[in-house]
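pipeline stage [seq->struct] | target=Hydrogenase expression/formation protein HypE | organism=Halorhabdus utahensis | residues=365
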Amino acid sequence: MTNTENVGEDDAVETDGDANSDGYTDDDEVITHAHGAGGGQMTELVDAVAVSQFADAAADVGLAALDDGSVQPIDDDHSVVVTTDSHVVTPLFFRGGDIGRLAVSGTVNDLAMMGATEPLALTSSLIIEAGTPQTTVERVTESMREACEEAGATVTTGDTKVMGSGEMDTLAINTTGVAVVPKGGHVPDAGLSVGDRLIVSGTVGDHGISLLSEREGFDFGGDLESDVQPVNDLVRAAMDAGEVTAMKDPTRGGLATVLNEMASKADVGIDVEERSVPVSGPVSSAGEVLGIEPFDVACEGVVVMGVASEDAADVLDALRDNPKGEDAAIVGEVVDDHTGQVVLDTGFGRRYLSPPEGEQLPRIC
């Protein structure tokens, strides 16, 4: 990449835009943290570098859908669901979890968002900076094993690479998950219909605000911690209780981004009651001090789901019967107005709930 941080007017060099030995020109746009933050810039980047290259691959749900995974038929009765994710976080160990628990939970949860609640296998690739204590890596892999046991999953293959000291930040993990579902049995994130109810399975903002406060050294009390956890058992209970029409987990970009994506993909509007959205007291207080809206930051143990209106009460009861869903709430409704957008009723008025733009909290998932 071109480094322009210390270039002043007197240092400007005229260029004809020819590519240099690294294959880029001085006119090329560079990647910033904002491209990985879950907002509009990330969507544009993925569209440019991935979807445009591989969108033609045949699948029930392919890359162009930008869902939590792909769905590929394997015979007349079954389809395979595949998802992959890379995980970077600072600090590696935080209140409520660590990068190992995050990697397993994130992959299991992405499968679950597709309706695949029984993981068949996970892969794990560790990329480690030279100089990292081996005990650090052992703690991470032990945490991965414990999260796998909780989710009923296992790592069946993997890879390890070591980078030079200073070439990366300690440790990154890539995980892939595979599951089998009945043909046509997957749940897309684009499946909302007018009249559906929106349910959030737990308090929002916990992961992102907890990590930021810990990283910056703020002490908001012991109740503030990440919510990172596998939720495939929670999703299974919901699907057994009623018709779940769409699902997504509010990771990067948080609840605001997920709701807008679901509304846009289904070409519907969403009305949300702000007072109905579960936010813990510590997260609300910390968010006010930090100037961060809990709706805009990542959760790592929460599901946002659309549910057929006649089944909403039964699904809500099933979620609340599970300790992971005890704070679940119906937060809104799908409407045929303001299609592709989310309107938030604050109790004092109504406003659009827009996804965050730019870099808010780097390296949190």
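stage status: PASS
auto-comment: Confidence is low (pLDDT under 50) at residues 1-16. The chain is about 30% helix and 20% strand.
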